[in-house]
TrEMBL record:
GO terms for biological process: quaternary ammonium group transport. CDD domains: ABC_Carb_Solutes_like. It comes from Puniceibacterium antarcticum. Residues 13-244 form the ABC transporter domain. PANTHER family: PUTRESCINE TRANSPORT ATP-BINDING PROTEIN POTG (PTHR42781:SF5), SPERMIDINE/PUTRESCINE IMPORT ATP-BINDING PROTEIN POTA (PTHR42781). This is ABC transporter ATPase. Pfam families: ABC_tran, TOBE_2.
Length: 366
């Protein structure tokens, strides 16, 4: 078969300007997204931001107030026209994946399949083999572990070859050790099948691990979209930084495109004089040094000026330690993460520096 450039670049799933209101309030507010064949997009956001509602509209179990949904360029739903859920070629996988308890593993996987008995058997065998569970084909779900049941649910969802797979926190019921392996396996299988995936999660690590693209959602809106690396390295605002890690914030005012802080001056190009800004950085970009008779390390171009604080709390976190400092200059608390075990005594005076190339400067909101 010849594949035209349009087929390669045409999104498999596209949603345009979806709006859903409950009691007059838009909980999904003008959301647009498109996903290419074989790609995974993660809808990432805090609880209640509208992720599941978006998924429910695409699945066809809820109806938008406005906006359109397309699969492979074909309209499947707008406010006048609606393809029923079972004819959308969309597979679903939720945390509560609910296999049918009275059906064998094989019959669970065959459930949504059409065709002859032999054709169904072939597809069920192929998928169960692929997820390493063919030997369970005649067993019942309760005889399987949670992770095994999850893999059966994946095989069942993929059996009818859906063009799009919607996954809502599908791994959150699994314990940590199982989760990573099943996540990677699932991803590999979805890519092999060329299925486009929209995965809902509120866990940034999960999104980073699985997504080709992350859509960061807040208050019903998508606030930023991009490859995981780009979202992490160039976050749109303070909240986007905070979604991926603890943050530190310095407050300041701009004069002549410069902000004065205890760590020296920062450039804030494009912000008018008097504009209030926040300088945001992650604890892993804070350097620490010992106090030498009231003096700290020499300033450098990369680290700027050092500022002094005293240790307020130090906790061992596994591969790193988190130390909190009460700063001398304004009494605020700043956090630093340090590799390995570093647990200085409370009250120890130390000097902090900040990696300037890892700071984000945003106009203060509100
Ligand atoms: N049927 C409904 N009637 C009224 N309000 C609803 C309904 N469904 C969802 N909501 C509200 O819409 C908002 C978004 O809910 P949604 O379940 O989409 O959020 P979410 O981002 O998936 O959250 P979570 O991560 O906790 O599942 C919430 O404030 C929720 O209370």
């Amino acid at each position: 078969m010849n594949i035209t450039p349009t087929q390669i670049t045409q999104p498999r799933l596209e949603i345009r300007n979806l709006i859903r209101r409950f009691e007059g309030k838009a909980v999904v507010d003008d959301v647009s997204l498109s996903i290419l064949p074989g790609h995974v997009t993660c809808l990432l956001g805090p609880s209640g931001c509208g992720k599941s509602t978006t998924l429910r509209m695409i699945a066809g179990v809820d109806m938008q107030d406005s906006g359109q949904i397309y699969v492979d360029g074909q309209l499947i739903c707008d406010t006048q026209f609606r393809v029923p859920p079972e004819r959308r070629s969309i597979g679903l996988m939720f945390q509560d994946f609910a296999l049918f308890p009275h059906l064998s593993v094989g019959d669970n996987v065959a459930f949504g399949l059409s065709g002859t008995k032999a054709e169904k058997r072939k597809r069920v065998t192929e998928l169960l083999e692929r997820v390493g569970l063919l030997h369970f084909i005649d067993d019942y779900p309760h005889e399987l572990s949670g992770g095994e049941q999850q893999r059966v649910a994946l095989a069942r969802a993929l059996a009818p070859r859906p063009r799009v797979m919607l996954m809502d926190e599908p791994f959150s019921g699994l314990d940590n050790r199982l989760r990573d392996g099943i996540r990677d396996e699932t991803l590999a299988l979805l890519k092999e099948e060329g299925t486009s995936v929209l995965l809902v999660t509120h866990e940034p690590e999960e999104a980073m691990r699985m997504a080709d693209e992350i859509a960061l959602m807040r208050g019903g809106r998508i606030v930023q979209k991009g490859a995981p690396y780009n979202i992490y390295k160039s976050p749109a605002d303070k909240e986007a930084v905070a979604f991926f890690s603890d943050i530190n914030v310095l407050q300041g005012n701009v004069q002549g495109a410069l902000v004065d802080t205890a760590f020296g001056q920062f450039l804030a190009p494009g912000v008018p004089d008097g504009g209030a800004v926040e300088i945001v950085f992650r604890p892993q970009h804070v350097g620490i040094d010992f106090d030498r008779a009231g003096r700290g390390p020499n300033p450098t171009e990369l680290q700027g000026m050092p500022a002094r604080g005293t240790v307020e709390r130090a906790r061992f976190m596994g591969s790193e330690s988190l130390v909190e400092f009460r700063m001398d200059h304004d009494g605020a608390v700043l956090k630093a993460t340090v590799p390995n075990v570093f647990l200085p005594k409370v009250g120890t005076a130390m000097w902090l520096t900040v990696r300037r190339d890892r700071c984000f400067i945003f106009p203060r909101k509100g």
